[in-house]
Structure formats: structure tokens, C-alpha cells
Protein: Cytochrome P450
Amino acid sequence: MATQFAEQPRQYRTSPIAVEALKEHLALHPEEKWEHTHPYDVSRSDIYYEDRWQPIFAEMRAKGPLHWVDESPVGPYWNVVSHKAIGHVEALPELFSSSWEHGGITILNKLDEEQLAAQGRERFELPMFIAMDRPKHTDQRRTVAPAFTPAEMKRLEDDIRHRTGELLDSLPRGEVFDWVDKVSIELTTGMLAILFGFPWEDRRLLTFWSDWAGDTEIAMVRDLDEMRHEILREMAAYFQQLWAERANKEPGPDLISMMIHSPAMNQMSPQEFMGNLVLLIVGGNDTTRNTMSGIVHGFDTFPDQRKLFEENPDLIPNAVQECIRYQTPLAHMRRTCTEDTELFGEQVKAGDKLVLWYLSANRDEEVFENPDKLDITRENARRHLAFGYGIHRCVGARLAELQLRVLLEEMHARRMRVHLAGDVERVRANFVHGFRKLEVEVTGF
Ligand code: HEM
Structure:
């Protein structure tokens, strides 16, 4: 089956990666650049690309947990910036909805029927349980949760360790290379391929799809959004084929087979099945990848912490938590208020969009002492909100933690030190928070 796909000349193989497509588009159409005039309009991606978001959020936190932005290219919205307020909002999922019908989970608004008609476009939606409320969310989450139990993690650990070790052994020494491409992407796509039983030789498609699916700025440019939908449709067709193959086979341990043979599957439409697969690809891809890059960048920025790690491998489990806190690979999730309410002294109206900035919660000085420092001995590193909180808390958290722990353990076992040695390029987005490129050199310690 993999060969059959590999032989087909498919358009997505030659499509540019999302970030290049956007750069090219904006170079040709500079008039389409978005205007951000409000001082607290943190939907602008340049502050993440240039890594200068920290003082803006610190200023907001000092003034209060909620801030209303009345005008922005993504419409009006509330910034929710404190650890406490985000936990509070996430603990009330009926009042603060995740559902696609209300607005979904990112800062972007979906086009309404009128806008779609004006653009002569049809709606393309892949329903996912991250963007559903109870009770549907509960049922669908149940179909994938068994893939992430502690017992499953134990089953996967040897394989992850073996692949991680092999990859680390293959890295060049004394030569500059891109850590994002050679390590972060390779390990995370490889892991997802194993989890889904995805054809190994096509695994980079998972990265390609994830980049297009998770880019919030791409979705704001009509032509690129069209291209994005086209790519997602092709992805759905690929998975449909995998699904058809597995549906007629004995249940296997991979996630696709597990979902097909789960009782809740009877209540899931083919679109929902596809949507949830996409959710797992996107959820498991950029996030773990960007933490793997963040670890290297963080250790290089704080060499005292790298030294602590090198001298004391017992700190690795806590270092994993601290690196996730420090990186916070998803900058935000969004909720929509369903009823007028008062929230931390502010009047929030039904229909208002609330953007929960995990990036800010994880630097909240009320919870984390000296929050802008990476500190792998931090006692409460586990209190980070990078995985969210409440009923939608990341279902893949254990798998991400396992991959990151094994990476650090295997680096330590090889006495590997990774230095920044060239270009550092961050992701230009307000949703995915991470690195596009990280040129490094490996030495020993
Ligand atoms: C949900 C972060 C890794 C699959 C989420 C949410 C966040 C998040 C912030 C939403 C929480 C909320 O709304 O309260 C992360 C981070 C990761 C990571 C930081 C890595 C460091 C993974 C992995 C997978 C995964 C490895 C699976 C392969 C999901 C799914 C959901 C989710 C399916 C939806 C859960 C629900 O709505 O009930 N993740 N994630 N994530 N994540 Fe992750």
C-alpha cells in the first residue's frame, strides 16, 4: 500500500512547506499584511518569531488576569494571562466552550456562511474532539485514551529508546547540522508512524500535513487556505485508504485499528474519524518536536542548567517538566463564553472569545519564582499549564513526556553535549511556539 502511494505523482509532494508559501504570498501582496494597533494585540506573530513576547505578557499580568482587545485582525477577544484565571476558565467547560460551533480552539474565527458565500467557497470541516463539548467529547476521547495508558507507555518504551539511541549515534560529530530536521522532526514523526502503524517510508508526510494543518496565519489568507484545504483533503484520502485496509483485518495494536474496532466508533461519522486522526497527528507532532528543540536551545542559553543535567541524571524527570514549562509549545487555546458572566471583575458576554495564553501562565511570577529562568531543580515545574487543564487536558501528555525523558537519558548515556553553532529560526505563528531551524554542533562532556 505504501508503495502504491509512493508511486503516484501526488501534488502535495511538490507543494511548498507552509511557511515558505506564506512568505512568498506576503512578498507578492504586501497590502495584505495585517495591522495590529492595540498594544495588547498579541495575535501578531512577529513577537513570537523575534522572541520578544515576554515583557508584553508580563505587563498584562501585572495589571490583571484579563484584558479586552477591542480590535484586531482576528476580531475582538479577551487575553487571559494568569495561571489562576486560565485554570478557572478551563474548569468550567459548559460556560467556556471549546466547540467548533461556538468558535473552536484557536484565536482565529471561522468564516460564517455569508463570508463563505461571498468567497464562493464550501465549508471544509474536520470535526475533532478537542473542539467538542460534553457529552460528545467524552465518548470520542475514550476511543483514543487506551493508546496512552501507563501500560501502553511501558510497551512502547523499548522501541522509543532503541530508535532514539540509533538516531543519536548517527549524528555527525564536529559538524554543523539542523537539530530540528535531523532530530526533533525525525523522532516525533517516527513515533507517530509507529503509533498509527503508518507506512514508514511516507512518515515525513505527517510533518508536512501537520505544518499545514496547524498554521493559523495560513488560514487567514484565502488562496493559501484553499491550498491548505486541498492538502488536508489529500491527507484524508490517504487515511481513508489505511482505514479501509485495516477495517477488514484482525484488530492490531496501532491506533487506527484501535479506533476502528472501538465500540464508540459506531457513533462516529467518517469525517469525525478523519478529524480525530488529524488531531492526533497535529497534537503529537509540532508540540513534542518543539520541546525537543526547546531543550537544546534552553540548555545552550542556561549552561549552568546543562551542567547540572550532565552531573546529575536523576534530575531528568524534573528537567522534562521544566523544559515543557519553559518552551510551552502551544502558545494558546481558545474558549467561547456561552452566557453573560462576571470573571475576575470583568463583564464577559455570551459569544466573547477568550484566549488562554499558556505561554503567559507558565511565566506567571505568582506561581513560578524567577519564571524566565530555566531551572531543572524547580520544585513546582509540574504545575505548568502547557498541556492545558481539565477535561481537555492533553491526552498524549504521557507519550510526550516519555519521548522527552528517553531523549535526555540517551543523550546523557552518550555524554552528548549540543551547542548552538549557527542559525536559529523560530516559528512565525501565534499558536505553535517553537523552532523552524536550530543549527548545532555535538561534542562530548
Ligand atoms: C490536547 C499540548 C503532545 C494529542 C492538548 C491541549 C494542549 C496540548 C495545550 C489542549 C488542552 C486544553 O484544551 O485544555 C501538548 C503538548 C505536547 C502534546 C505541549 C507535547 C509536549 C501530544 C501528543 C499527542 C497529543 C504526543 C498524541 C499523539 C492531543 C489530543 C488532545 C490534546 C488528542 C485533545 C484532548 C481533548 O480535547 O480531550 N495538547 N500536547 N498531544 N493533545 Fe496534546
